[in-house]
Amino acid sequence: MKEIVVWAEQRENKLLPVSLELMAKALELAEKLSGTVSAVLMGSGLRNLADTLIHHGATRVYLVDDPLLNLYQSDLYPKILARILSQKTPEVVLIGGTTIGMDLAPRTAAILRTGLTAHCVDLYIDKIEGKDQLVQVVPGWGGNMLVKIICPERRPQMATVRPGVMEKGNPVETRKGTIIPVNSGVSERDIKARSLEFIKETEDETSIEDADIVVCGGFGLDSAGGFALIEELARAIHGEVAGTRPAFDRGFIPESRMIGQSGRTVRPKLFISVGASGAVHYTTGFNKSRVIVGIDRNPRAPIFDVADIGVVGDLRKVLPCLIDELKKEGQH
Questions:
Q1: Angstrom distance (rounded) from CA 275 to CA 317
Q2: What is the mean pLDDT of residues 66-70?
Q3: pLDDT per residue over 178-201, tens digit each?
Q4: Which of 134, 146, 173, 192 could form a disulfide with 157 if both were Cys (CB 3.0 to 4.6 A apart)?
Q5: H or E stretch including 248?
Q6: What top-level class would CATH report for the domain 3-190?
Q7: Banded model confidence at residue 204, pLDDT cuts 50, 70, 90
C-alpha cells in the first residue's frame, strides 16, 4: 500500500497550521492512490501532538522524542528524517515551506537522491504513461504561468508547500492510529552548528494572516506618492495593510507584510488589490480569499481575471472617493 508522509513541524510543542494543512492534502492524495497517510514528528515531549495528527488522518505517527531535538538542528533533523524515509519507502513526502522546512527539505532530498519541488501551490495525482504521478504545480517563467512538474523515476516524490496555500481539514476524534517510537540515533558530537533559540515575530508582523480584510498595494502606488491612501483605506474598513514585492523593494512595507510566492499567503473574507497588475506569483498569495476586489488603471491587467469585483481607473481618483464613501457609511 502506498504511503504519503507529512513532516509535522512544531514550535514550542504546538503544531504549525501548515502541518495540518498538509495532512488534509495528504488524505486527498492518498484516496487517489488507495494509500495511507503517516506523519513524522520530531522534538521533545510531543506525545499529545501525535494524537492530534491521528485525529487529522495519520494512520501512523513516527515519533522521534529526544531532548537534543527540542529545537530544530540542521545537522540532525535531515539525517533522521532521511533514515526514516529510506526505511519506510513512501510514495510522497510533503513538507511545509517554512523557514525550517526550506532548510530541511533540500537536505533530506539530497541524502535520498530524489527530486524536490519547492513553493507548490497545488498538488494532485495523475496517471502519466500508465503510472500514478504526483503533479506539483508552481508559478514559473517569472510568475507569468503555472508550471506542472513530476518526478517520474525517483522515490519518494517530495514537495514543499507554503503555509496558507492548502486548507485544514476537520479533526475526527474517533480516528485511530499507531504511534511508533523511533530512536533518534544521534548524540551531542553529531551537532556541528547548534540552534540555541528562536525569536518570535511580533504579533503585528503576523496579523495579516489572520485578518478578515486585507488591503494590498502594488507598484502603482509609487505614482501616488506612497502608501498613505492604502493605509487610509485599511483604517476605514478596519483592515490590514499589505503589499507586493515591488512595494517592499520601494520600502513601502516591511517584508513580513509582503503577499505572494516569496511572501505571505492569506485567505481573508475580503482582499483588495490596488495598483498591482496581478502576475501569478502575486495572486497565488491570496487567490483563495472569499471576495477579491481589483483596482487598476489597465483594463487588461491580469488582476481582473481573478477578481470578483474589478474597478478600472486611476487609483488617485478612485481611492479618495471610496474612502469618503466608507467614512460616510461608518458614521451611520
A1: 12
A2: 85
A3: 999 998 877 777 777 777 777 766
A4: 134
A5: helix 245-249
A6: alpha beta
A7: very low
Residues carrying CATH 3.40.50.620, the chain: 3-190
Q: What is the pLDDT of residues 28-55, one digit of tens each?
A: 999 998 999 999 999 888 888 999 999 9
pLDDT at site 191: 76
Q: CATH 3.40.50.1220 residue ranges in the chain?
A: 203-331
Q: Cell 496558507: give the residue.
A: 164
Chain centroid offset of residue 158 CA: 15
CB within 8 Å of 45: residues ≥ 6 apart: 13, 65
Output the CA torsion 46→3→33→20 (10° steps): 20
Distance CA 263, CA 165 (A): 12
143 pLDDT above the threshold of 70: no
How far is it, in rounded angstroms, from Cα 214 to Cα 293? Answer: 10
Give yes or no for a contact between 4 and 28, defined as CB atoms under 8 angstroms apart: no
Are the CB atoms for 290 and 245 separated by under 8 Å?
no
Strand, coil or helix: 171: coil
**pLDDT for 224 beyond 70:** no
Question: Closest Cα to residue 220, out of 284, 291, 295, 289?
Answer: 295
Count of beta carbons in the 10 Å neighbourhood of residue 284: 25
Instruction: Please name which of 13, 8, 51, 47 lies closest in space to residue 26, comparing C-alpha atoms.
Output: 8
pLDDT at site 227: 85
Beta carbons within 10 angstroms of residue 301's beta carbon: 22
Reading the block at residue 167, the C-alpha cell is 486548507
The CATH homologous superfamily to which domain 203-331 belongs is TPP-binding domain (3.40.50.1220)
Is-contact 49 16, C-beta < 8 A?
Answer: no
